[in-house]
Amino acid sequence: MICTRARIVLITAVALMLSACFTPDTPEGVAEAFWESVIEDNASNAVRYSTLEEQRNFDGFGERWQGFTTSWGRLVVDGNEASIETTFDAADQSPSKRRVFVTYLVRNDDQWLVDYDHTAAGIRGGVFGELFLRLNRFSQEFSRQFDQSAAQTSSELELMLEQLEAKQEVLSRRAEDALESYSEALESALKELQRSIERASREKGNSLSDEEKAMLQSTATNLEDSRRHLESDSLLSIAHSSHTLTAVEQYLAQVDNGSLAEFQRQWREIVERFREDMEGLMQEMAGH
User: Fold this and answer.
1) Which residues contact 234 (CB under 8 A, 6 or more apart)?
2) Strand order of the sheet with strand 69-78?
3) Which residues have CB under 8 Å from 239's CB, separation 6+?
4) Residue 92 DSSP one-character state
5) So what's the pLDDT on residue 237?
6) Range of the domain at 274
7) How many CA atoms lie within 13 A of 113 on its CB side?
8) Which long-range contacts (CB under 8 A, 24 or more apart) does 78-84 make?
9) DSSP for 64-79?
10) Residues 164 and 197 in one domain
11) CA 184, 187, 189 angle in degrees (round to 5)?
């Protein structure tokens, strides 16, 4: 009997030791373990599963998470970085309390950790952070599905727009200011891209086929139309213009004409600068 009890105690002790030492080794597992720690307000485990170095720096992102449940969306892994769409639902399943953002992770010494500061930037961006996430996600999806039918792409865009318009009435003043900055940066990128395309058409016209000339003219016209739509300053127009910028970027990248190589480099740089500006805006919204 004593031997049996000792064996049970030993097995239990070993099990506890193993559970204490166990660390999930996938981005999804680490994200889940991290958010369980946040919901339980367990600073020790939150540090264990994130890039935080000290428990005193854990602030729960300035939010109350108790009573929420998590669900997971699209996972993207790119080398030593990963991101997973994260949804928090309140116990009463109220749509107004739902939070959607991205959990970012990095891999250090073969161990995935939640990038606390990067994740905080999206969360503290509030409604605008969610808006930016949705625009960025659609851009990624558009790139991935570029060869699919226009009808399917359009239907996905319209669904996203309905969700965005539903949020417009609850934008805070700070988010409205950020949205205005986003709109201005977007307009500037569209204008710069349009002018560059028009210049390429003028300077390289002799080396372009009729089809390529028509393509550049049509693209410049689409960019001008998108800039005019931005004047309405609505989420609908901003989303449409963001869609146009992504579509144009993908379209121009497929042009196979050596004489346009330098212009293609310029076009990539214009879009990249815009995206960098947006990342900076998100950092500003997060208070960094």
Assistant:
1) 165, 168
2) 69-78, 81-89, 99-108, 111-114
3) 135, 138, 157, 160, 161, 164
4) T
5) 66
6) 131-285
7) 18
8) 80/106, 80/107, 80/108, 81/105, 81/106, 81/107, 82/27, 82/106, 82/107, 82/112, 84/27, 84/28, 84/31
9) --TT-EEEEEEEEEET
10) yes
11) 110
Cα distance between residue 99 and residue 126, in whole Å = 9
User: What pLDDT score was predicted for residue 37?
Assistant: 94
pLDDT of residue 82: 92
- Residues 152, 234 share a domain: yes
Q: What is the CA radius of gyration of the chain?
A: 24
Place of tokens 């001008």: 224
Q: What values do phi and psi take at 86, rounded to 5?
A: -125, 130
Where does a domain end: 116, 139, 157? 116
Cβ atoms of 176 and 126 closer than 8 Å:
no
If asked whether residues 138 and 211 sit together in one domain, one would say yes
Look at the chain and report how many structural domains it folds into.
Answer: 2
- Which DSSP helix (H) or strand (E) runs through 21? helix 2-21
Phi-psi region at 87: left, alpha or beta (left = phi > 0; alpha = psi -120 to 50): beta
Question: Of the candidates 82, 116, 150, which is a domain's last residue?
Answer: 116
Q: Could you tell me the CATH number of the domain that includes residue 267?
A: 1.10.274
Mean pLDDT of each 10-residue bin along the chain, 288 residues long: 49 42 80 95 94 92 88 89 89 76 90 90 61 52 46 50 51 62 83 91 89 87 82 63 73 80 88 76 54
Q: How far apart are CA 31 and CA 37, in angstroms?
A: 10
Provide CB contacts within 8 A for 205, sequence distance 6+. Answer: 213
State the CATH number of the domain containing residue 51: 3.10.450.50
Q: Tell me if 107 sits within 8 A of 116, measured CB to CB.
A: no
